[in-house]
């Protein structure tokens, strides 16, 4: 899964597709999650090309759609939500960017919904999860930063988060950039269309 190429940033998917018309028919995988949950780190780990996605210790750093061409189609990294220091205007911009990709999009292949495995879902996480269920969108829940927990803690947190979300824990993937178990599971499910 080594092939990945950064194409460009955009505020709206239509703007991106105007610049890259060759991508119009590509299936789209969209990464969604709160600020600093590890979306860029996941891209860098899943496609092992050094720093193809820019990571930052500063939450809210990514403010545009980041679009990548891959062997699995177009990957779109949405700006993280929920960072307290963002302005009302920036939060509105996030909403419009997200809607442009997530709503009425016939090319949407899957939403990768990232949650920090160490913490219960935030109110905004719960709000987005409710939207996923209501719209019947294809998604996979990834519990990131699993390497920061012991194995018993990983399993306990997975059960706890699944209970809060009313999800089958077996459908959720514990993801760590320190090993390939989560990557292998994710690749299998994306290739086989095994979504929630």
Could you explain how this protein is built, in words?
The mean pLDDT is 88. It is globular, with a radius of gyration of 16 Å. Strands 1-3-4-2-5-6-7 form a seven-stranded mixed β-sheet, sandwiched between helices. Strand 3 and strand 4 (73-77) form a beta hairpin. The chain has one domain (4-192): Rossmann fold (3-Layer(aba) Sandwich). The protein contains six helices and seven strands; from the N terminus they run E-H-E-H-E-E-H-E-H-E-H-E-H. The chain is an alpha/beta fold and 196 residues long.
Task: Describe the structure concisely.
This protein has a single domain, classed as 3-Layer(aba) Sandwich (Rossmann fold), CATH 3.40.50. The protein has six helices and seven strands.
List the helices and strands and how they pair.
Blueprint: E1 4-10, H1 13-19, E2 28-33, H2 39-46, E3 65-70, E4 73-77, H3 88-102, E5 108-116, H4 123-135, E6 139-144, H5 151-165, E7 173-174, H6 181-192
Parallel strand pairs: 2-4, 2-5, 5-6, 6-7
Antiparallel strand pairs: 1-3, 3-4
Key phrases:
Rossmann fold, 7-stranded mixed sheet, alpha/beta, 7 strands, 6 helices, 196 residues
| CATH class category name | Alpha Beta
What's the end-to-end separation, in Å? 23 Å
CATH superfamily: P-loop containing nucleotide triphosphate hydrolases
CATH topology: Rossmann fold
What is the radius of gyration?
16 Å
Strand order of the largest sheet: 1-3-4-2-5-6-7
Number of helices: 6
Low-confidence stretches: none
């Amino acid at each position: 899964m080594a092939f990945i190429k950064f194409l460009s940033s955009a505020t709206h998917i239509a703007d991106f597709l105007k610049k890259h018309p060759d991508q119009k028919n590509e299936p789209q995988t969209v990464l969604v999650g709160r600020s600093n949950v590890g979306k860029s780190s996941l891209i860098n780990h899943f496609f092992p090309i050094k720093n193809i996605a820019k990571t930052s210790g500063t939450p809210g750093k990514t403010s545009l759609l980041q679009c990548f061409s891959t062997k699995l189609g177009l990957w779109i990294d949405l700006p993280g939500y929920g960072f307290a220091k963002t302005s009302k205007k920036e939060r509105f911009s996030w909403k419009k960017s997200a809607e442009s990709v997530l709503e009425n999009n016939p090319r949407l292949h899957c939403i990768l919904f990232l949650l920090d495995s160490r913490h219960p879902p935030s109110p905004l996480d719960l709000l987005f999860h409710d939207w996923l269920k209501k719209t019947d969108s294809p998604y996979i829940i990834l519990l990131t930063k699993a390497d920061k927990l012991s194995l018993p803690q990983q399993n306990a947190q997975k059960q706890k988060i699944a209970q809060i979300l009313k999800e089958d824990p077996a459908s959720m993937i514990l993801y760590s950039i320190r090993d390939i178990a989560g990557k292998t599971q994710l690749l299998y499910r994306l290739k086989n269309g095994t979504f929630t």
